[in-house]
Amino acid sequence: MTLSVLNVRLGIGTLLLGAVTVAGGGLAAYRFLTGIGAVSNLNQGYPWGFWIGFDVLAGIALAAGGFVVAGLMHMFGGGKYHALVRPTILTAFLGYLLFIGALLVDLGRPWTIWHMMIYWHHESPMFEVGWCVMMYTTILFMEFLPVVFERFRLEHLYGIWRNVTPWVAIALLTLFAFAMTHSLIWVLAIGGVLAGFELLVRFGFIYRDPRMPTLLLMAGIMFSVLHQSSLGSLYLMVPHKLNYIWYSPILPLSFLVSAVAAGVAMVIVESTWSAWYFGRENEIALLRDVGHVLCWAIFGTLALRGSDLVIRGVGTELLVLTPQSMAFWIEVLVGFIIPLAILLTPEFADSARWLLVSSIMVIIGLLINRMNVAVVGITSTYGATYYPHWMEVAITAGIVAGGLLAYVVICSNFPVFPSAHERRAHA
Amino acid sequence: MAIKALLLDLPRCTGCRGCQVACKQQYKRGAEKTTFFGGPGYQNPADLSPQTWCLVTYNEVVVNGRYEWVFGKRQCMHCQVPGCASACPVKALEKLDNGPVTYHKEKCIGCRYCMLACPFVVPRFEYETWNPYITKCTMCASRIAVGDIPACAKACPTGAITFGNREVMIREAQQRIAGNPKKYIHHIYGLDEAGGTCVLHISSVRFEELGYILRVPRSPMVAHTEPAMKTIPMVMLGLATVLGASYALRTRKQRNNQQAGGAGSQS
User: Hey, what's the torsion of the CAs at A47, A52, A54, A59, to 10 degrees?
Assistant: First the structure.
């Protein structure tokens, strides 16, 4: 007795996800009637907590990181990685929509979020974050459209899309450059390079990719890089509150690099999971390559973080038993050292299972890192303390569960995976 | 326009809390239910809140071998280059030319980044309502605009709060310290903190004993984010060039095939 809705089997898993989504939605509705104080432990000393750490900092890194990786592989790795691109675009697009949903819960007056478009303040890292969200979500939407065109056989629209989207991407990037600098020279320089590239493509001097306009991928990568690093820039503003284990002038860079490492891990987790769920062959040869990249990405992040700590002279603080130093060591062990050890052991590196284990550890390590920056490392004054309220966690769980459901529904109905389309769950 | 400032001469304060009441009256802030608390000071309420923008703190300090009450004051410091205003994505917080840092509630989106950015932990958020705003001391910008002085300064009966041009207030503070070097410690809180503020405190005991926050950078808060924000266009230009150029190089062969298969004119 397999019941299914929208081509999705109604198993224990999907029903559970549905229940968590509904519960989270109900609590979110309660929050909009009574205020943030009623559902969270956020207070005057800790204005940012679990929602910012988990939903925003970690969520964005996990959503978009995968796409950056897949986009780069698509641009430079030839056709063989094409199978990985669409699922990561979908993850990123859904992730961003979910993140916007989570942000609406966290913002005090979410119905005024459009103020960012009219009151410009380019000095503020938060302004950059907000603009990156708007721009990148638009780019992701455009990148996802071919899946819809293919599904409904809209060849004509596909053609228009191929011709128009590069120019839209150029327009968005140029507008972004203007909003961030207010300088005509920068706008002309950046817009000029991009438009020049597109014209060269049009006149046949550069290869024109028939599947996806290269400029759209470039725009995605550029906005992603800016967005990941700007989340780190947010915390440059708090040298007085963030523990110096984490506070560093290179926070934007270490946010970007760790997001790339977690992004590689996300590619592995996603394709392993979807292979299992849709009963496809696991692309193990492909994943082994990705595992190599993951190894280097972890190593790079570790090297950056380590040299940063050495150069800033943080040493003894790491050996004193404080909640912060312990959180740091957990982060480093789970996120870097153990997965690196697994990937460097030849017996483990070739096994799909251990590849998955180390990827999950890298992702958990990133979650711990972002929570450390957002909550554990923040010291407030006047005796303020913060511990997430269960309703905060429940609302986030609802949002994540909703996202997983949407992912399954879309994967079951649209040609996201090259081979999944014909083998989708039976009605 | 001359920059205005408040000079708080803490040894002159008798802890009458006239300023606290005057502030509440001026801005129609309600009373709040308070409880015992275990934090710095014995004041009531315990800390600034959406209802309390100006607070006299009561501190038990050992002076000359015996316990004495020494009073401090918490309120917005009105930084010269305010972190809150640098942080705000929609310019809801604004530094006026004559000193005050004011809040435009109609612009605010409620992101609370100003609260995180403020080195003095001043902005307060209304957590208990569906339509919340940030609240904080305005240095009575509207009173200053019509030639009056801030309500707290007007209410103070002992001259502990003086209002005037910032340079004059700094000179006054230096003279008071120099004129009575045994009474005052040699530190004007707010002269250099966070790049300088428009509320200056002088004290007879060390500021940490009054619960003041001393882990404040000497540079304006924006100095820490500016380098990162300045690199945005460079990153954009660099990425556009590098990605575009390396893609073009990487796909040379495919282009040649494409042209051979297509028009076949160039190679």
Answer: 180
CA B202/CA B209 separation, integer angstroms: 13
Helices assigned H by DSSP within chain B: 18-27, 83-87, 113-117, 141-145, 151-155, 166-179, 222-230, 232-250, 252-261
| Tokens, residue B218 | 């000497």
DSSP-assigned letters across all residues of B173-191: HHHHHHH-TTTS-S--BTS
Check if the beta carbon of residue B17 is closer than 8 Å to that of residue B56: yes
Report how far residue A410's alpha carbon sits from residue A145's, in angstroms, rounded to the nearest whole number: 12
Q: What pLDDT, on the 0 to 100 scale, is given for residue A284?
A: 78
Q: Tell me which residues of chain A, numbers 331 to 390, contact chain B at a CB-CB cutoff of 8 Å.
A: 380-383
Q: How far apart are the first and last CA of chain A?
A: 11
Which tens digits make up the pLDDT trace of A100-154?
A: 999 999 999 999 999 999 999 999 999 999 999 999 999 999 998 988 998 888 8
B51 at interface of A, judged by CB pairs closer than 8 A: no
Amino acid at A258: S
How far apart, in Å, are the Cα atoms of B229 and each of A58, A124, B87, B235?
21, 8, 12, 10
Contact of A373 with A235, CB cutoff 8 Å: yes
B77 touches A at CB < 8 Å = no
A352 Cβ contact list (under 8 Å, min separation 6):
A272, A282, A284, A287
Q: Which of B107, B243, B251 sits opposite A119 (nearest CB)?
A: B107
Question: What whole-number distance in Å separates Cα of residue B211 and Cα of residue B202?
Answer: 14
Cβ contact A187:A168 at 8 Å: no
Q: Does domain B4-80+135-220 have CATH number 3.30.70.20?
A: yes
Neighbours of A83 (CB within 10 A): 15
Task: Report the alpha-carbon distance of residue A90 to residue A83 in Å, rounded.
Answer: 12
- Kindly state whether A241 is in contact with chain B, defined as any CB-CB distance less than 8 angstroms: yes
pLDDT in tens, A310-326: 999 887 888 888 899 99
**Cβ–Cβ under 8 Å, residues A125 and A237:** yes
Show the tokens assigned to B155.
Answer: 């209410």
**Cis before B45? omega within 30:** yes
- Tens of pLDDT along B225-240? 999 999 999 999 999 9
| Cα–Cα dist B149/B144, whole Å | 6
Whole-Å CA distances, B116 to A132, A375, A379 = 21, 12, 11
Q: How far is B233 from chain A (nearest CA, A)?
A: 6
What are the pLDDT digits (tens) for B143-178?
999 999 999 999 999 999 999 999 999 999 999 999
Which pLDDT value is given to residue A420?
A: 44
